[in-house]
Structure formats: C-alpha cells, structure tokens
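Re: Re: ligand-bound prediction request (bumping)

Still looking for help on this. To restate: I need the protein modeled with glyoxylic acid bound, output as structure tokens. Inputs repeated here so nobody has to scroll up.
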Amino acid sequence: MALLISVSEFWEDEKVWRQWVQTELPEMDVRVYPDDGDVNEIKYVATWKHPHGILKQYPNLKAILSLGAGVDHILSDPDLPEDLPIVRLVDPKLTHEMCFHALHWVLHFHSDHFLYMKQQMDKKWKQQGSIQPEDRTVGIMGLGNIGRGIGDSIVNQGFKVLGWGANQKSSLGDIQYFFGDEQLGDFLEKTDILINVLPLTEGTTNILRKQELQRLPRGAFIINMGRGGIVNETDLLTLLEEGHITAAAMDVFEEEPLSVNSPLWSHPSVYITPHIAGQSNPQSSAKTIAANIRRIEDGKLPFPIYNITKGY
Ligand code: GLV
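Reply:
Sorry for the wait, this slipped through. Here it is.
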C-alpha cells in the first residue's frame, strides 16, 4: 500500500514531508510525485497544489488528503476523480500560527506601527495618541476552527470581537456572531479591523466587493489571510486610494504567486506576505494525516471530510 505526496514548488521540501509521514506510517510505502512507481499501489494522495490531472492516474485511490486547511486547490482540478473522500487538515500548529499572523497585524494597525514606519522614512518624531483595545472592534469572517482560535486570542487582548459566517451557530463565547447575507452589512458597519479567514467556495467568491467594503467605517483596516478570490483586489485598491480603507495586510491573492505587474506590490498601504499565514507543519500534520488514514483503514470516516453542500 502506498501514499503519494505532491506539494507545490513554493513549499517546504517534499523530502521533509516524506520523512515525517513515513515516520508516522511505517507500514506505508510513502512516495513523492513524480516518483509514483506502480500506480495501482497508490491508495492515498496527500497534496498541496498537485499538478492537475494526475489523480486520475491512480485507479485504487481511497482518499485525497489536503496538506493545507483549505481544499479549493484540490477541487479546482478539472480531472478530479469522483466520489472519493477529500479530507481537510485541521492541525493545532497551523491554527496557532494563523493566530500569530492575525495578532501581529491587528497590533500593527491598532498600535499605529504602520504610521511609525512611515514617520521613520520622513525622520518625523510624532507620538500618536493611543486607542484602547475595548474601543476597537475586530470582525472575523469565517468562524470555523481557525477563525474561532483567532477570535479567542484577540478577545484575550481586550478587543471587541465580532464574527460573521454563512450559517447560524450556537454559542461563541465572547464573540458576537452575525450570519447570512442579511447580516453582513451590519457586521461590516461595526468592524474597524476586518480579518478574512473564509474558505473559497461558490458562496464566498468575490463576497467583498466595493459595495460591501464601503460598509466598513471610514479608516478601517483589512487583513486577508483566507483566500484571495474573496476580496476583490481592484475594489480594494480603489477604496485604499479613496482613503476609505487605511491599510491592508494581504497574505493571499486572486492569483498566486502575485504577478510582478500587480499594483498591490508597490502600494504604500499594502503589506504583502507570500501565503505564509498558516504554514502546515510537516511533523504535526503528519500525525493528523496518519490518524485519518488509520480511521479509513478501520472502516471509519476521516475528519473533517469535505462537505459538498457547505462547499468546504
Ligand atoms: C493554507 O492556505 C491552507 O489552506 O492551509
């Protein structure tokens, strides 16, 4: 029985992934694409952005496991084999790293560090007054495991935290929750710093266009660490130019890698990172992947499995 790993060229070395997955699954023959050997032996593929079309070469595939939290990179393969379970990665280290990334930018914006960076360029000594965290509202779009973790870590710093998601949820502790299209405007109007961690689905694609972003109070900040296709980049640039949005920290983009021709690169109020907000940790992810494979081998369902109705 073999498991095939396929990761994008921009990721951690695939040999490192192989080593950790092999450690967790000693009984498995762990291979790295394109060295797939006998294709009939491949029962599992663990992937981050595999070359589209390859999955249909494996006739005995039992499941496809994402090496990232999202599965949009798998679903976008036009030659995806049908009726196979697609397993998302829920990994505590990835969630923790996402919390760090969110907190970093919330504090950068909240504590005026974006202004002090500009002042330093001008050799300008000016103390900005400080705003208390309880007077600043952070709104999180996407309140799954990652969004909830981020929300709790921001609540712990004393900020007001709101959440928005497509569906109703029960208790979310100190996070006030909004849901559905009807409540999106209300949520945005109350949000000073917007964090997006929504998965990319049919329902979330381009959900933040000019008309929605304009509902944010003037001077708002955006942290996009979910998926690029959710925030319309042209509309975002327009609102940055108009001063309606003060600054944006962008980790994900409509097209990745971000084209060298994108005006986002050189915009003075845009902070760019190359999709690193939550990097999957090979050692810890390998444990989660191994546990899911054991579940499947024992006739149980892996967790969490992609749900076609929800779209993630
Ligand atoms: C990264 O974007 C992931 O889906 O884990």
